[in-house]
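Recap quiz, item 2
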Amino acid sequence: MSLRVLNPNAEVLNKSAALHMNINAAKGLQDVLKTNLGPKGTIKMLVGGAGDIKLTKDGNTLLKEMQIQNPTAIMIARTAVAQDDISGDGTTSTVIFIGELMKQSERYIDEGMHPRVLVDGFEIAKRATLQFLEKFKTPVVMGDEPDKEILKMVARTTVRTKLYESLADQLTDIVANAVLCIRKPEEAIDLFMVEIMHMRHKFDVDTRLVEGLVLDHGSRHPDMKRRAENCYILTCNVSLEYDKSEINAGFFYSNAEQREAMVAAERRQVDERVKKIIELKNKVCSDNDNFVVINQKGIDPPSLDLLARAGIIALRRAKRRNMERLVLACGGEAVNSVDDLTPDCLGWAGLVYEHVLGEEKYTFVEQVKNPHSCTILIKGPNDHTIAQIKDAVRDGLRAVKNTIEDEAVVLGAGAFEVAARQYLVNEVKKTVQGRAQLGVEAFADALLVVPKTLAENAGLDTQDVIIALKAEHDRGNVVGLNQHSGDPFDPQMEGIFDNYSVKRQIINSGPVIASQLLLVDEVIRAGRNMRKPT
Amino acid sequence: MREIVTIQVGGFANFIGSHFWNFQDELLGLASDPEGDSVFKNQCLNMDVLYRSGETHQGVLTYSPRLVSVDFQDAMIVVVLIMDVYRSLRIYVCSLNVAGSLGSISSRGTLYNEASSVPSDVVTWKGSVSTQASEPHKKNLFLQSLYEEEQENLTHKRNGFQREIEDKDIVECLDNGVQFWTDFSKVHYHPQSLYELSGLWMDVQEFDNYGIGRDAFSGSFQGEDICERLRFFVEECDHVQGFQFIVDDSGGFSAVAADFLENIADEYTNTPVLLYAARSPTSYINLRSRKQTVFRHLHDSVSFSRLAPYCKLIVPVGLPSLSTSKASTFLRIEDEKAYHCSAVYAAAVHSASLPFRMEPVGPTADSFAVSGAVDVNGFVQMLAGQARQNMVSILDVAMPAPPLTGKQGEQSLLGSLQPLTPEVADNVEDFQAVESMIVHGALGSGGHHASVSAVKDSVNAVYEHATSRPMFCHLSVARCPLPIPLPFPSIFGNLVGQHGELLDSPISGSKLRGSLDVHSIPMAARLRSSSAILPFLQNRLGNLRKFGIERGALGAELLRSWRFEKDEIDDMGETLSKMVTALVPNDELSSDSD
């Protein structure tokens, strides 16, 4: 109570009150997110105070839109968002799983059980589940040529939870091809090498994969070509603008002519750089060839003029990441100085053209040889559609990447959860001594939240579904939930697969947070009242 | 023409920005108004420096500020979990709209809106849709009248249209009820301009220190998004002359800005950044306990020493009590209203930005409307690039500027310039001081706007007679005064006349005069690089040493919780002490070392 003395405004919640606050917070967050889960979940439309509208089905996006005031809920939210950062999916599942663990625990705690015992049981159950996961996963051999079918199935499973089926299937191909395009043997996959570009134009079904690069800017000179074939591409990071500040320190002059001369000399330096580029162009280009300069730094109008007169297309202020992508897509190398330009630095693209939408310009670099970087070009009539597709593409890409790196997948549609639950109850529980058994049981029941929520969102009766699933499982089959009919079915037949690493991460982090929250017996907060909404 | 890109980071910075853009909008409006005053018509100010022209998908031409603004996100769902007496759970997914910064303006702006922002149906999802609507922010009278005006323009129903909302009511409504900086903004922003930080899960009030903001920029690629926004505006520019950066450095946004500045310094190495580190008077109160005092002091030191290295010139702005300061002799300001204080700072920032967009007429001939054009780089080099390399400048302002003639006359111009920078020493004799003075719209004899050459002559005369003169002073003069737009707080006292002239006897009637009574005011602003800034620097250095670096310092734990390593803190101390030693007069320094 020393805190009371120090700060009379501090508020203390002790023992059961603190515990119940945590449990309620977890349940509350679960309630908000659970309708999102699965291919039958609801999409949420958020309308802001200014009439802004956001549509999302992504747990991660939704959490970020929320203003959460309860400290426990914030902790869970942070865990869930971290889950997304690490494995790219499973935000909603994490929140639901933690909520369910807390809910199951509440039953036992209300009966007078000590949280410590439950936590011990969680720990045992967690380890057993992770071991079981190792046995249950379906190994996939990647080798040099990964099995595209399995990659597509994993991608389809996740994308279908975000978009309607036919669009999802279209995107599935796109993301699988995109990852395979940037994949290099013996190297980690860098998803940044897939550029995601969007245009508010046409329809969602016009979304496509561009083998090459799409830049969100165009040339800034009216005389430059808008379309060019057989292009040499120079990727560079060289300032082609007259920068007074560079030389300001040593700028001494005594009259106007001298000053003019100095400025002219400085200008000449920039021109020299431009001339070197033009020289290279003249060296490599024959009649039908074109030359494109893509610069990370600026190019000022006089330089643009020189380049345009030499028939060169020039783009300035390219994204930093595009420097890397361009080289991977077109070949050549990015140069930081024009002093050692050789034809080897140049990349090549069959077609470069510009597309203008209002004030927005897009430059397409296509028909490249042997690309290791590509662009997913998202199209849609409005920003909501684009944002939806973007979320889905992001998830799909991560799913494919995870599969390649895990070299394994896990059967989806609740199959793993049902199997793991039965394993825990039928086998693990017997080996545990004493009351920790109850912790294992609580954990096992909490796992069922995934099939339960899937059933609920599909408008099915959860009890019926769970009983049917358990019965079918005990007959020795691997079963998932068919969301259309509510019957048990084999997810393998339907090609429903989840990521192994996502599952493992959920099983790992969920109980850790739940245990921490359960063991809290005092909540102290100096300042604001936590019972009242602000 | 050389472009400036403006960046505003944080709540108060956006308040200042909102006023700043209102001034620009007013200038644009007055210049194109056929019945307008000739002073405004021939401004000889190139607005393209600050504005960009664009085109919507429908082919409508647009003209919008070249601006990137970063602020807090208006949360769309507020989850409040309450346990009632029976311990049963109640979840309120409600929309209290406690946080957020944009108020009733959409972050996409209205310029490029699709025909309807409400999607008639969700095209990407065949399943069910649940809607979670926040209670709409009520548009205040001013925004309503803007909206109506726009509708009127659209339908061309000019005849017989009765203005339903009186200007007087608007002014009153704004004076009492401004909550968000968008409440009084009359500018159309480009959809790329307004960026909201999301996923912080805290109130604006909790986002109040450097440590808490450190992750906000790098977290979930938000920094990358912000830099992309900036790139969008820079790519369009043929030749950027500099960045005008306003940051609210009283809280977590100073960390966001520091990361952003580091990125800018990396990407646009040779483009100078002119940084205004601003804070509202409200950020100074709340020092109840010793612990909070330490906390504040450390935040101030850390934030200043992290912001300074990445810009070319830093101007701290924001007095602890603007209302009682000498700068507001003719103004009646309420400190707790950000709407009031930001107006004064915005006016000063506006004045300081004038030389950057004056049309150069040639090296010798001065135009009749402006003189003393200089670009950001020249400006920064002049103030910070001299022998002492002092990059911290003091902003002084005279609002409104005294007339050039008459009995209050000549001496008072220098006397009336009062600092907006906190912790500045008075009456410092510094022979190495460098100043840049901007006078615009100064009134001459008979209450007319004085000609440029008259202003120049009289300012020169003032300096001739001054007791202490700076080493160097650059003067920029414009004829065009500061126009007072409609959404402007009633902060003028009753000694200020319609054109900003200072009256001998108070006007009877209302004590406060706003945009309806005062149409424009003459302004003078001055940036000076002088050793008068020493107390400001020394306080920061002293506090950092006392609370952060010394053995057993009170705030060492706090700095650790902000994830600063020992050597990082030492580096900050080094940065600050270098700034101090550059300014300390030599004789004092030698006696110090004895």
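Residues 356-529 of chain B form one domain.
The radius of gyration of chain B is 25 Å.
End of item.
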